[in-house]
Amino acid sequence: MTFHDFHFNQKLQDGLDAMGYEKPTPIQQEAIPQILAKRDLVACAQTGTGKTAAYLLPILHNIIHSDHRHLNTLVIAPTRELVQQIDQQVEGLAYFTGVSSIPIYGGGDGAVWDQQKKALEAGVDLMIATPGRLIAQLASGVIDLKYVQHLVLDEADRMLDMGFYDDILRIIKYLPSTRQTLLFSATMPPRIRALANKILRDPAEINIAISKPADGIVQEAYLVNDDQKEKLITHLLKGSAFSSALIFASTKEKVKHLGRLLPKLGLPSKAIHSDLEQNEREEILREFKNKQLNLLIGTDVLSRGIDVEGIELVLNYDVPPDPEDYIHRIGRTARAASTGHAITFVNQLDQRRFGQIEKLIGTAISKTDLPYGFHPSFAYNPDGKMKPEKPHHHHKAGNKKRFFRKRPGSN
């Protein structure tokens, strides 16, 4: 099955083609037809299974074909970070469609509030919001939700854990009763069931279990502060005999920085990101697939869009924003029953996030001592509380990681 089988509007399909999306994930295969059929939906699916595109694609298709352009869709998500991620996905998927969106979240200054207010007054098709900031905007009278046709509650269990139950019910009072409601949750405790029964009408139900990393992947992590990451990546990669490796970073800015830095450090590589023209991105991917390029740097969008055999190493320059993204990233190696290696750099702020990854995959990931010549790192503490630094034993000087083979003639 491919995305063409859904018969999306051609401009929407053009966006999918440009982003390299070909085959839908299981959640997309099951959810998209139900949403296109205007069914309410309860879906149990982790972030990273493709759930965001599962609801955005059919909603964008419906917006394109709607007769009147008002604020058509409201997506409510628990955190500023998730709101921003969803808005970025809208920007990519809707690139050729003319559909507009706006993220609404707190934590900014007065200028951000004014910017959001002006954008709302100008009119948008799709709004992604945190509950608290949305209620504040509703109280100001700027937002009119009376034409909303689609309501999406994303990571509903997390929102309830954060105490947003009453806020969600309050927001729903501003919405028309004749709407399509989609509820996505990683778990389905009784409170979520009760909420679904309260706000959905005869919903379809989908349950997608997330896959675990392949057995053939050797996973390890380095506890390393940001100021030593560039030195460490050079130590690990320079002179190594890998034929194909991916480096992931969580922001486009980091990807571009590494794309400039690594070639200067003697590591021929290229960065792929959304600021490049489509033909430039395609050419870089072609070089990587043909093994003309050994080292490719990208964001999590790349982790879903690339399907290349023979990738020996995935290196996470930072811990991915969501635990499930880790599985997508390292899943680029050890494909087709082969073996692979996954290395993750974990700084002090990312410890809690990395602990969530270990909880998701059900195993502790080996913490490798920093090589000789590096400052001692911190003691691993995934509950997020800082502990005093604990000296690690060092590898002997010049000792490269066991998985790397030296290139002939390298020092």
Q: In brief, what are we looking at here?
A:
38% of the residues lie in helices and 15% in strands.
Would you kindly provide a written description of the structure presented here, covering whatever features stand out?
This protein has 411 residues and is an alpha/beta fold. It has helices at 10-18, 26-36, 51-64, 80-93, 110-122, 131-140, 156-161, 165-172, 190-199, 226-237, 252-264, 278-289, 300-305, 323-330, 351-361, and strands at residues 41-44, 73-76, 101-104, 126-129, 150-153, 180-185, 204-207, 217-223, 245-248, 270-271, 295-298, 313-316, 340-346, 366-367. 38% of the residues lie in helices and 15% in strands. It has two domains: 3-207, P-loop containing nucleotide triphosphate hydrolases (Rossmann fold, 3-Layer(aba) Sandwich), CATH 3.40.50.300; 217-367, 3-Layer(aba) Sandwich (Rossmann fold). It has a seven-stranded parallel sheet with strand order 3-4-2-5-6-1-7, with helices on both faces. Strands 10-11-9-12-13-8-14 form a seven-stranded parallel sheet, sandwiched between helices. The chain is built from 15 helices and 14 strands.
